[in-house]
Amino acid sequence: MSKKELSSNIDKLVNSVDDDNMLASNNAEDSTKGWTWEIDQKGYYTSCSDEVFNCLGIVASEFINKSIYTFHITSESSSDLKKYLEDSKTGGTLVVRFEHRNGNRVVVSLSISPKTNDNYELVGWTGFNKVVQEEEATLEATLPAVREQPALIVKQPISSPAVQAVEPVQYGQIQPTNEEQTFELADYFSVLLRRKWVVILTTIFALAVVIIGVIMIPPVYTATAKVRALTSQDGSATSPQYNVTYAERLLGTYAEIAKSSPVLDELSKYVSPMPDPVKSIDVQAIASTEILQISVTDQDPALAQHAANKLAEILIAHARQLYTNGTTGISLYIVDPAVIPVLPSGMANWQIIAIGLIIGLFGGIGLAFIFENLDSRIYTAKAIEDITSLSIIGDIPEDHMRKGNEIEIYTGKSIIVEAYRRLRTNILSRTKYKDFKSMLVISSVLHEGRTSVVVNLGASIAQTQRKVIVVDADFRSSSIHKVFGLENEVGLSNFLKGDETLNIQKTKYEGLDVLTSGPSVTNPVEILGSPNMQKLVEKLKSLYDIILVDSPSCLSVTDSAVISTYLDGVLLVVRDSWVRREALINTIQQMAHVQAIFVGVVCSRTLSRVSGRQSKIKPLSLPENPDETPFSDKAAF
Predict the structure, then answer these.
(1) Helix (H) or strand (E) holding 514
(2) Residue from 392, 507, 398, 396 nearest 459 by CA
(3) Pairing mode, strands 438-443 and 569-575
(4) What dotted CATH number matches 220-336?
């Protein structure tokens, strides 16, 4: 054997050893696949390593501030884990099951250790989750119930190399978890904040009515005279005996006599105008006493005092006639004559106003929830996720300087530019395991910001030195050529009709090209579903790294469903506080019928600028230099 042949054999042997070592290393890495985490004493995640994406298909930042007992953990494992952490003080190992994004269950071995402060007090837990095995999703585990809705079949957008996605997987309304229930109070506050003007105006209206009533209705005054009824007694002077039953009957009799017609008729001779005997005159016996209380209410305090004292005098005179038979013995006498009242009777004005304020406030809150129940528009990220069963991967704030619905490409440093960078990073990270190069951007209805997302996302991705083309497939209301200031005489419609020449136009943004819609057509669905569309997609894939396609709104036409069958994935744009629940469900159903692969959801034109959702979806920042980013391999998209 020559020296050259010997050297060649040695090289092959060394290479084979290196390959075996590398394979063993990879196998070892797969066998110990897992992630680290930390939680506080209440059980909420404070940190989570990025490796969780490889295991569960979930971005690590989504764990932060979520409860370890409920976030993507099965219900049976949740109770076991909670009891373990409550009973254990030293930590240990526990086996639990997590739900993978593709519907599978991931069996995990948790190595748990306590976290203590300088005083050796328990402040939380740290752990390493090691994936033991993965279980295929069962029908009951993976098919969430959809209330009175047909089954929705949607392909999963994410799968790691070690975890294969299960197809098809039903999407619909997610059954509420314990984690969602912990946020119900926050949801109530968000409804009140959203309907604050209903609460404010209702409260103001009720308060105004009460104040007007207080001003318009004159005050009334109550004067009270007290009369004592002597009770007959038996026995000796040293040992008297009282007939209590008879005394009570006697007081009741006097009370009825005081309100009888003869007495009131006589009172009317001395008092004018006569108070309403039903509403203004009240005679009651004070319990456990011999006292009869005579009260008269009137707008004139002097009249109320005079009527109360006069009624007491008339009652005494009648009692003398009835019970003394004209003798000089008197069974009744006034012990506390009525005086002129100074303060109005009943509640003070400020108390009435306070009650009116409270009633108005609670009435406004009730109306707010009634209006919320009647309004089917979607206001929260949680509602979007519940309806679509998709993750929110972008949050584009509203541009309050924009006029109407005009579309602008944002550059420089601004909160909106940063939002598109986050969206770009999330899309790239979610698709890095697949040859994912073409994406359809859809929305349910008009004016949700779909076209704005297409052009700005294209410009943002182009900044990473990828070749990007934006295709305008909206033949009914094309606008992308206007955004870039391009001609639209020849475009997509020409190629789909059989013209072999592609009129791709360059923009002023490096790496970003546009294929405009071209002349309008009378049969958009037919030409979009023609073999030429498939031919176009394949041709563009050979020329560009990323293809973004704009389409009409799903609720009005079926163009989007037709186009999605040729592309790798679908990005759903949902405008904050705009689209209605029925429209969004209809969109998901349309895409489900063609088994579209959803990349995720973008919340567009959010009214609160960059809202609290960013804390859930914020990814690792993507360097502008593509050589420094883990996604520099263009084919990985």
Answers:
(1) strand 512-515
(2) 507
(3) parallel
(4) 3.30.70.1130
- What is the SS3 assignment for 570-630? EEEEEECCCCEHHHHHHHHHHHHHCCCEEEEEEEEEECCCCCCCHHHHCCCCCCCCHHHCC
CB atoms within 10 A of CB 284: 14
* CA 372 and chain centroid, separation: 12
Its sign, for the CA torsion 563, 474, 586, 615, is positive
pTM: 0.52
Domain 390-636: assigned CATH number: 3.40.50.300
As a whole number, mean pLDDT of residues 559-566 equals 89
Q: Is 10 left (phi over 0), alpha (psi -120 to 50) or beta?
A: alpha
User: How confident is the model at residue 548, as a pLDDT?
Assistant: 95
User: 25 pLDDT exceeds 70?
Assistant: no
Tokens 């099965």: give the residue: 74
Question: pLDDT, tens digit, for every residue of 413-448?
Answer: 888 899 999 999 888 876 554 568 899 999 998 888
Task: Please say whether the beta carbons of 539 and 502 come within 8 A.
Answer: yes
Q: CB-hemisphere CA count at 13 Å for 421? A: 16
The pairing of strands 598-606 and 569-575 is parallel
Query: Domain 32-173 is of which CATH architecture?
Result: 2-Layer Sandwich (3.30)
Q: Which residue has the tokens 């306070």?
A: 354
What is the mean pLDDT of the segment spanning 445-461? 91
Tokens linked to 110: 């948790």
Residue 605 · residue 578 · CB < 8 Å = yes
Is residue 393 within 8 A of residue 598, CB to CB? The reply is no
Nearest one of 12, 58, 14, 65 to 35, comparing CA atoms: 58
Domain definitions of the chain by residue range: 1-29, 32-173, 220-336, 390-636
Residue range 54-71: mean pLDDT, rounded = 84
pLDDT at residue 539, as a whole number: 93
- Residue 77's identity, in one-letter code, is S
**Torsion angles phi and psi, residue 389, rounded to 5:** 60, 30
pLDDT at res. 574: 92
Task: Report the 3 state secondary structure along 450-504.
Answer: HHHHHHHHHHHHHCCCCCEEEEECCCCCCCHHHHHCCCCCCCHHHHHCCCCCCCC
Lowest mean pLDDT segment, chosen from 11-20, 300-309, 407-416, 531-540:
11-20
Rg (CA), the chain: 41
Q: Is 60 exceeded by the pLDDT of residue 314? A: yes
